[in-house]
Design a protein that fits this description.
648 residues; alpha/beta; TIM Barrel; Rossmann fold; 3 domains; 8-stranded parallel beta sheet; globular
């Protein structure tokens, strides 16, 4: 009854607004165009008349309510899936083109219309590929367009399941680098640039930002965060969302939906292990700092983030207001999603589960994965003993709107037909998802111009902004005897640095420290391979953070420093322990994603390093092991505290 009242009210408003409504551009690949009152509309269901969901003069809420009532149960279930667009010979959908036949089956037979894309490539090619799939969606019974999402793809570091290689996109510092600069205007500008690049190729949803606090130094996902300080992270998250969504007034036709993640407490990873893997399924709060992990999400809510993604992690033994939190991953936790997120914080958008939470965790995901195996994974933490259909039912009851990484519409249909959930519950989530499609303007025109995409994606102007941000994000930690800046004509021994980039900045590259005036060495925060039989254990950086004797880069630093002043730049995807590097380095730089050119601009004084540490750098592994995983900047006697920078 409520929905039908909405239709009636909406149609009255349509009649009043028709004369003032501007005619939007209609993108079609086969749907008929009909004219009403001198205006054009797409007849998506080929009915021969104008139905409320096809009428762009109506509000997105009215249109979504009308469309849901026209859907079969199977179609409603399809709206609740957020599948993976397939690519030839890649189970994770990676490559440069889609498996169009496979995608067609998911769109037409499974009725799925939201997908993640992991394709890489230039702007024009991606635009062409996404247009091909939108044309398939237009041919379905109701013509529902696709929402296509992506993990971050404008940065340096990329691990499958967390990011995509930048390819032709403008290449900015990591989120940690934006936090190091600490300028909300720049972070918002980054979001604006990335938004234009995303929409140019047909991406509509960013599976970012991370509002997680990187309070456990060993945790492998720190690089995608804005650091460990709740106030800083909250400001950066708000600016990021505003940039991607084209303001703080909700979604519009130029927006990219920002899905803030991972609700909540992911960064308090027990012993630093990541919850993509079963051995890392717990987050721990011995320091009593859970509220600090919630706080950054408030910035996202202030900017009206369109989506939230729950964490895989189980919040081990946590009590909130004396109430024990159920020991299941957040995607199954009704208190976290319904009571806290929607109740306390009033979140109105779409809750998108993290990927594969409804899958089983077979032997391959329990430590028996081998190189070359298919990545048969599931992250059903806390509900491993439930059936797959039982996990869908529990997540749906908890408050999940869309299920990431799966296309099992048949299981949702079975849940309703068996009485484990009502069809009205599916309709509630379907309306939320569809309303965002209407707000984004996808029903009018989901297609993009490949030629425009070629001009916009990675444009010279955007890349210049990105490279300036790379240099600004560098953190100067040491500069003994005014080693920096280097004067033109200096002879430099290089390790991990392009000789051509050095030559272009007036330096002379030589083959050995003995022949040099100074050495420049790029390295990264140390890590260990501790879980090679787990897919994510193999890919992610885990373990100790200190430089150990025998490690090739550390030996190179010691050897060079024994001959000449040595400049060391360390990529801080995790908070490295630099205690035994500091004394060997005449100049020491913290790097959060910078090209050789951007680094050398700072080395020769062409650009200034403006970054401050977004997390502290501990003094020892003993200090790391002794600190609380949930508390920010709390290790004993840090070598460099949070916010540190040396100004030359």
């Amino acid at each position: 009854m409520f929905d039908r009242v909405c239709w009636a009210v909406g149609l009255l408003l349509v009649a009043q607004a028709a004369s003032a409504a501007p005619q939007p551009r209609l993108g079609v690949r086969g749907a008929p165009i009909i004219s009403v009152d001198g205006l054009n509309f797409k007849d998506l269901n080929r009915s021969g008349g104008l139905d409320p969901y096809e009428d762009w003069r109506a509000s997105p809420a009215v249109r979504a309510a009308d469309l849901v009532q026209r859907m079969t149960l199977e179609e409603k279930a399809g709206v609740l899936m957020h599948g993976t667009l397939p690519a030839p010979a890649s189970p994770m959908g990676m490559g440069e083109r889609y498996d169009v036949e496979g995608a067609a089956a998911l769109i037409a037979e499974r009725r799925v219309n939201s997908f993640i894309s992991r394709l890489s490539g230039g702007g024009a090619a991606l635009a062409e590929e996404n247009n091909r799939l939108q044309a398939l969606a237009e041919q379905t019974r109701l013509g529902v367009p696709l929402t296509i999402s992506t993990d971050p793809r404008n940065h340096f570091q990329h691990v499958a399941g967390a990011g995509v290689a930048s390819g032709g996109f403008s290449k900015w510092p990591e989120a940690l680098g934006l936090a190091a600069i600490g300028d909300e205007r720049l972070t918002r500008r980054f979001g604006e640039v990335a938004r234009q690049e995303y929409r140019a190729v047909g991406f509509h949803m960013a599976l970012s930002p991370q509002a997680d606090l990187a309070t456990e130094p060993r945790w492998s996902r720190a690089t995608g965060t804005f650091g460990e300080d709740a106030d800083l992270v909250g400001r950066m998250v708000r600016a990021y969302v505003a940039g991607f969504q084209d303001g703080e007034d909700g979604l519009g036709p130029d927006s990219v939906v920002a899905v803030v993640k991972h609700w909540v407490g992911y960064g308090a990873a027990k012993e630093g292990w990541d919850s993509h893997s079963i051995y890392g399924r717990f987050a721990s709060f011995p320091g009593g700092a859970f509220a600090q992990h919630v706080k950054p999400f408030e910035g996202a809510f202030q900017a009206q983030a369109g989506g939230v993604m729950p964490t895989y992690s189980i919040l081990q033994d946590l009590k909130i207001n004396g109430r024990p939190v159920e020991q299941v991953g957040a995607g199954f936790n009704k208190f976290l999603l319904t009571d806290l997120l929607r109740g306390t914080y009033g979140f109105k958008g779409v809750v998108v589960s993290d990927w594969l939470i409804t899958n089983d965790c077979p032997a391959a995901c329990r430590g028996d994965w081998k190189a070359g195996d298919r990545p048969l994974l599931g992250m059903p933490w806390g509900v491993e003993d439930l059936s797959e259909i039982g996990r869908f039912a529990k997540a749906l009851d908890a408050g999940v709107d869309q299920f990431g990484g799966t296309e099992r519409t048949d299981l949702l249909v079975e849940i309703v037909r068996s009485g484990q959930a009502t069809e009205a519950r599916l309709e509630q989530s379907a309306r939320r998802v569809l309303q965002q499609k209407f707000e984004l303007g996808l029903f009018e025109d989901p297609y993009v111009d490949p030629a425009a995409a070629a001009r916009i994606v990675g444009s010279a102007a955007f890349q210049a902004e990105a490279e300036a941000a790379q240099s600004r994000s560098l953190v100067l930690l040491e500069n003994r005897r005014a080693t920096l800046p280097l004067a033109a004509g200096k002879k430099v021994f290089l390790r991990g640095v392009s000789p051509a980039a050095a030559t272009a900045r007036g330096l002379i590259a030589v083959d050995s420290p003995e022949a040099a005036d100074v050495a420049i060495i790029r390295t990264q925060a140390p890590h260990q391979l501790l879980h090679p039989n787990y897919l994510f254990g193999l890919m992610q950086h885990e373990g100790d953070l200190d430089f150990k004797d025998g490690a090739p880069d550390y030996e190179a630093i010691k050897a060079a420093a024994a001959k000449v002043p040595t400049i060391v730049s360390v990529f801080l995807d995790r908070p490295a322990i630099l205690t035994n590097v500091k004394d060997h380095a005449s100049a020491l730089i913290g790097d959060f994603g910078a090209s050789d050119e951007a680094l050398l601009d700072v080395v020769v004084g062409k650009a200034k390093p403006e970054g401050r540490l977004p997390f502290e750098l501990p003094s020892s592994m003993d200090a790391v092991r002794a600190q609380a995983p949930d508390r920010p900047h709390d290790s004993a006697a840090p070598l460099y505290p949070f916010g540190y920078a040396l100004r030359r």
